[in-house]
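Q: What would this chain look like folded?
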Amino acid sequence: MPLPYVLLSAAVSLDGFLDDTGPERLLLSSPADFDRVDDVRASVDAILIGAGTVRADNPRLLVNSPERRAARLAAGRPEYPLKVTVTDSGELDPQANFWHTGGEKLVYTTAKGAERAAALLGDTADVVPLGTDLDWRALLEHLHDVRGVRRLMVEGGGRVHSQLLQQGLADELQLVLAPLLVGDPAAPRLFGPGAYQGGRLRLVETRRIEDVVLMRYEPTAPGTGPAPTAADRHWLRTACELAAQCPPSETAFSVGAVVVAADGTELARGHSREGLDPVVHAEEAALAKTGRADPRLAGATVYSSLEPCARRASRPAPCAELILRAGVRRVVTAWREPDTFVAAADGTGALLDGGAEVVVLPEFEALAKAPNAHLLG
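A: My prediction, written as C-alpha cells:
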C-alpha cells in the first residue's frame, strides 16, 4: 500500500541530546533555523509528534508565517497542516496548546486508548483506534488513504523517531547540530536502543544556518521481507528514472534496474539498450557489471521498473533466470509485464519458483510506464 513520504526533523547538541531537556527548555536551533522549520511545515500535509512531546513541550505546531499560510490557501490547501499525535494510553491533556491552535487534529491510539482519548477530547480531535497495539505501517496507510497525506513531517520525540527508523518507514532525516554540550545524563537522546536497519545513511545535503548545521540524510539499506521500506521506494524510483534514459524503441520496453547490497551499497545499475546494444535488458546490463563471485549478491535486492522477463527471443537466458543465477533472492518492481510482446509473461512466477521474493509497488507503475506510453496504446 502507498505510504506518505516521512520526514523526521530534530535538533541535537554536540553530545547527542534533544532540545526538550525539561522545564528550563534549552533551544538548540537558531532563529534562522526556526524559520527553515516553519518553511518545511508549510510544505507538508501533516505534522506528527508523540503524546510525550505534547505533554513535555506543550507545542502549538503552527505555520507562523502569514505569507506561507496565504500561499497554502492560494494553492487550495488548508491554512495549517493536519496535526497528528500518537498515544498508547489515550491519556492526553485537553487543555494543551496542541488542541486549541491551528487546523484539524488527529489522534492515533489503541482500541483501549481510544475510549480514554475520546472521553477527554470530545469533538476537539478525530480519534482513530489501530487495534490492540499501535501499528506504524497501518497508521501511515490510514494517513495516506483516508486523510490524503502525501508528505508527513515528524517532529518527535525520540521514541517516535526511533520506531520509524527501526521499522524502515522514514524517508528522510533532517538533523540540525547545535554548537552546545548539554552534559545532563537525564536529558533525552534523539534515538533509543533497538535494532536499526544496517548500512550507512546517505548524506544528501549539508547547510550552515547561522551557528548550526543542517544535515539531510536518506536511508539506503533495502528491506528484508515482503513489507517495503522507505529505501525500497527510493531505489525503485531510481530504477524508474533510469528507464527514461533508454534509447527509444518500437519493439521493446524501456526499463531501468539497480542492484543494491544489503548494507545499502549500490552494486550496479543499467537500462534497456544500454551501450549501443539494441537487445540488452536492464537487469542483464546491471548484473553484467557485478562480479559473478561477489558474496554481496546473495543478500542483494534487484530493483526493476518492469517485472523481469521470464521468456525472451533475443538472448538464451531471460532476466529472471539471470537474477537467480546471480544468487539474488529479492526483487522489487513497479509493474507486471503486459502481453504487448510476450503473451502470459510471468517473470514473478519464475522468480518465486526459484526461491526469490518479489515485492510489487504499484504506486510507481505510472512512472515506470511513462517512457513506454507509445507502446501501450
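The first helix runs from residue 31 to 43.
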